[in-house]
């Protein structure tokens, strides 16, 4: 769907935020060109397309830039036909936006904090924050998903994309911390949800491999330590 060159995505393969846009485009069966950025070397196209934040992802649709991952997902949902990503009901749409924002405001910062924590006390604090956040999301999945496979019901929706984009980095976090984030006893719904999300056709071709992400994380941590 779409003419060649009509849709381009400026991104980087390790970015969970770029993954959101890729999953949304796949759900809508949109053909697009992926323009890969490299670590520490921002292209002129990126700087020109997103002069405010200077970061990926940026969706280019007829050369018109759309920035910020969740805004891009909403744009894709509104522009292209196909399965709905956001609910039609206004109250359900608001709830979906709420939990997606929660992922960005609470879950992702806690994941970053675990990777950078200095000392046992700081590490315990961010672990408690992350595990508490996942417990809340377990309850949200029960409430919003209404017993279906996804937050969006039978199909992947807005919250699924927001949280599912973090799964690769959650696995990296587990590797580094030897901590199980999704537990079959404490978060059984999220365990099943994660399997369903990663095996979905729109996801499995673009989800980064965990081993590759681990190696990339080591590079990031080395840079962080050298700058600290």
Automatic annotation (TrEMBL):
Which keywords belong to this entry?
Answer: Cytoplasm, Transferase
The record ties this protein, via SUPFAM superfamilies, to: GST C-terminal domain-like, Thioredoxin-like
User: What does the entry give for GO biological process?
Assistant: glutathione metabolic process; toxin catabolic process
Localized where?
A: Cytoplasm, Cytosol
Q: Which reaction does it catalyse?
A: RX + glutathione = an S-substituted glutathione + a halide anion + H(+)
- One GO CC term on file: cytosol
Domain of life per record: Eukaryota
Query: Which InterPro entries does the entry link to?
Result: Glutathione-S-Trfase_C-like, Glutathione-S-Trfase_C_sf, Glutathione_S-Trfase, Glutathione_S-Trfase_N, GST_C_Tau, Omega/Tau-like, Thioredoxin-like_sf
Database matches in Pfam families: GST_C_2, GST_N
Enzyme class name? transferase
Where mainly located?
A: cytoplasm
Q: Which positions fall inside the GST C-terminal domain? A: 89-220
In the record, the note on similarity to other proteins reads: Belongs to the GST superfamily. Tau family.
* Protein name per the record: Glutathione S-transferase
Organism listed in the record = Amborella trichopoda
- Organism classification: Eukaryota, Viridiplantae, Streptophyta, Embryophyta, Tracheophyta
